[in-house]
Amino acid sequence: MSIFKQLSExxxxxxxxxGKELAQMVLQESRIDIxxxxxDLSTYQASSPVSKNIRSGAAxxxxxxAEKQPELVAPxxxxxxxxxxxxxxxxxxxxxRVMGFCALLNKPVAYKALAYAEKYIAAKEGLxxxxxxxxxxGDLGAISREDARVVFPLLEQSMEKPIENEQxxxxxxxxxxxxxxxxxxxxxxxxxGERWQYSARKSTQQRAKRILRMRGSxxxxxNPGTDRGRSPxxx
Length: 235
Description:
With 235 residues, the protein is mainly α. The chain has helices spanning 3-8, 12-29, 32-41, 52-68, 70-73, 77-80, 89-101, 107-110, 114-123, 127-141, 145-160, 166-177, 183-196, 202-212, 214-222. Helix 4 runs parallel beside helix 7, helix 9 (114-123) packs parallel to helix 11 and helix 10 packs parallel to helix 12. It is elongated, with a radius of gyration of 20 Å.
């Protein structure tokens, strides 16, 4: 059965299982033909609700492969840009994550997703798409100080009004970019961590405390003349 037919006939958890199965064939059996077909199908009739199962199923395959082996997907990012405007949020949130996974290897195209991330954060239409945008920004901002300066205003916007449980993924994104922020920006991140360190959610507490532990590295960076330990040759 063709990939197109398999995807068109599957829905929900079955579709997710199929996506994982196809992705494993790409990763373990080097079936690049499956990956290329799924890249094309991720944008199939992008504005048609009827084709959403095909697009989202294909996008799942691309997302899994991009997370594990971004070098396989990065050369084809340009083809995936139209999927960021797909009718259904499922395809959009998976492809914005793909852009983040591949940002280091294809930054020029990954930057084209920035305008879509801005829209997703402004709309906050659901936890997964909002948090996927946050994580994409974290991946992009982790590359360099220059990239962090570009994405941090959007992360700040997201920090102002996180929707329920989004704080976990915002904390993840902020942890990724922390080392590339200036002191004023780091201070804002630390205040956000303080806000969530006593959350009722254990996962949120852990992420917040991990951010707050970065305060030590911030202080060390601001005091470069302090003793950072003796070298092995110092006796």
